[in-house]
UniProtKB/TrEMBL annotation:
<dbReference type="Pfam" id="PF13380">
    <property type="entry name" value="CoA_binding_2"/>
</dbReference>
<dbReference type="InterPro" id="IPR043938">
    <property type="entry name" value="Ligase_CoA_dom"/>
</dbReference>
<dbReference type="Pfam" id="PF19045">
    <property type="entry name" value="Ligase_CoA_2"/>
</dbReference>
<keyword id="KW-0547">Nucleotide-binding</keyword>
<dbReference type="Pfam" id="PF13549">
    <property type="entry name" value="ATP-grasp_5"/>
</dbReference>
<keyword id="KW-0067">ATP-binding</keyword>
<dbReference type="InterPro" id="IPR051538">
    <property type="entry name" value="Acyl-CoA_Synth/Transferase"/>
</dbReference>
<dbReference type="GO" id="GO:0016740">
    <property type="term" value="F:transferase activity"/>
</dbReference>
<protein>
    <submittedName>
        <fullName>Acetyltransferase</fullName>
    </submittedName>
</protein>
<dbReference type="InterPro" id="IPR036291">
    <property type="entry name" value="NAD(P)-bd_dom_sf"/>
</dbReference>
<keyword id="KW-0436">Ligase</keyword>
<keyword id="KW-0808">Transferase</keyword>
<dbReference type="InterPro" id="IPR003781">
    <property type="entry name" value="CoA-bd"/>
</dbReference>
<dbReference type="InterPro" id="IPR032875">
    <property type="entry name" value="Succ_CoA_lig_flav_dom"/>
</dbReference>
<dbReference type="InterPro" id="IPR011761">
    <property type="entry name" value="ATP-grasp"/>
</dbReference>
<dbReference type="Pfam" id="PF13607">
    <property type="entry name" value="Succ_CoA_lig"/>
</dbReference>
<dbReference type="GO" id="GO:0046872">
    <property type="term" value="F:metal ion binding"/>
</dbReference>
Amino acid sequence: MTQTAQQLIDELKPLFDPQSIALIGASTDFSKPNGRPLELLLKHGYRGRIYPVNPKYNEIAGIKCYSSLDEVPGEIDMAIIAVAAASVPGMLRACGVRGVRSAVVFSSGFAEVGTKGVALQQEIAAIAREYNIKMCGPNCLGLLNAANGVMATFATVPIHAGQVSSRLLGFITQSGAFGAVIYMLATQRGVGFNYFVSVGNEASLEFSDFLEYMLSDPETRVIGGYMEGAKDGAKLRRVAEKALQVGKPVILIKVGKSAVGARAASSHTGSLAGADRVYDAFFRQTGIIRIDSMEELVALVDLFAGGKLPAGNRVGIVSTSGGAGVLMADKCDELGLVVPEISPPNREHLESMLPGFASAQNPVDITGQIMNDPGLLKQCLETIVKDPGIHSILSFFALSGPRAEEMARDIVEVYNSTGKPMVMITWCSEGNESNVHAYKILKQAGIPIIEEPVQAVRALASLVQFSQTRQKRLNEAQSGPYRPAYDRDKARLLLQQHPFGERESKALLAHCGVPVAAGKTAATPEQALQAAREIGYPVVMKVDAPQIKHKTEAGAVRLNIASDEELVAAFAEITASARRYAPDAGVRGVLVEEMLPPGTEVIVGAVQDPVFGPTVMVGLGGIFVEALEDVAFRVAPITRQDARDMLAELKGGRILQGLRGRPAADIDALVDVLLKVSALAVDFKEEIVEIDINPLLVYPAGQGVRAADALLVKKNSDGI
């Protein structure tokens, strides 16, 4: 039976809220990994029962120590296992027999060390399944729950009570040590963590399981993480879509962009990194925010903690520095944010209150006049906030001077009066009690403060992207998933043909609703002549040989055949050239097809990604694909909005919209092809390895599309 999300959440509760913890391999030396958990549990006020287990000791830190699990009285919700790798299977099985519900395995020496370790890891995974033990690890730093003092970790991760904002962040990491560094640095900068989980090798529970648990916690409003590779792409997609639905942002540092990084990530925990460009597309598709640094994480947590999502991408900027305003406006434009003109009534109001040397344009430049009249900032912010054409606000200023506290309270008043996101770009001047107090007023009101202007714009752009993606998904949910109407049983029969070449590929695509060039097969020159006369000259001719995948390289394609004489000569040339190129290929004859009129060349395809499965691709043909790699991906199945987003991402996408007198292309027909290719790739993911339509000719709006060349590659197929 498939485990439901609620079942998983219920079964993970013993990990995050255990009433009793057994420390297997406990030590009296609190500087060691097997000694640290007991020290941390005591230090951070864990109120449950603690059972150290180690035959070497009678007691540790005044707590009775047991020689084995069998001696422990009562139920055990969690076991922390810190013993040599070879001893872990026996200890985990003892936990299963004893009825332990969850386990955290610190021990290393498993899949990360090679073949022998892989076998050991498979053994403990099987034991965990047999006894339904929810296991974190092995090879991990463990986990903590800041709310109840559960410190099932040996990392140096102080909670810093009283030094952080509200605890809103859950954090999951596939690198224990680096994740712990992120935790400490972010905590020092005021970020409050609810949870910290080092997943290790994910032999049982994986990244997505912990993510789903944190989504269920009403106190956790933002989820961050460090990811090297997803273990189960389909599960991660389901959970990411759930996060989008409930409005909780997921912010990830995803490494492995380069070939070197991907190789290092794969060897680190044995995870499969997959293609980075597919991960990147998946993140955009599901609203996951990809970041590159801890600084971005801190900025985004503050911004998302405010709980205000913008209605659009139009930004109002209020600054006391003209240079800072221009810098932010430039960055907005680069990241897809619009800095619009202020509406005439509001601009006139700004002009009436600002001095003549200031600017009432967007970005608004208050100038140094704020030193004489600190109330100007509030007045300008109130005016911008009321403008219906502004969806969010950035404000740059120095929070200092004798009236700093008054300015802070003014800003709080404006912030509380609106549902529009507001980001303050300011800083605290240490050494001045009034300035420090003013800064605290803003922080205590939950106002996002980011000290660096470009970082602030980048964070706001991420907030806008998340909001837009979420709204698109909510709108799509009302119409339901796309499901093209074609006979899947007949499609399966067509797919079973052998050998399987271009003619079989086009027959299957046509059956699924993809328009293809009209054509016929011909085994002899006489049959080719008859086909050409039925289709009508001019025609295209190419070899019919399923084993030859690259017909142009084989010299086996002829275009614009306009007469019987040309056709007969071309037949002989094509078949002879193909046999020279691939003597062992089964040349069945030629394909005779209509010569399609010129159109915008597009490539559409699908591949099987090792992590996410069927993945759809689109790009403009010619130099855009070959030299610029101007392509966009989405994980299948895709929605109509996904398809449109893919086209919008293409650098050369303006060509489809009409450029320099060219008519706009039939976008709707192109979107339909993407949806049908997506459905075909998903329906037959066990049979189809690759789909390649290149080129797909896109004609002006209302005139449709036609596939000139197409090839489907099946599993275990031969190709030259």
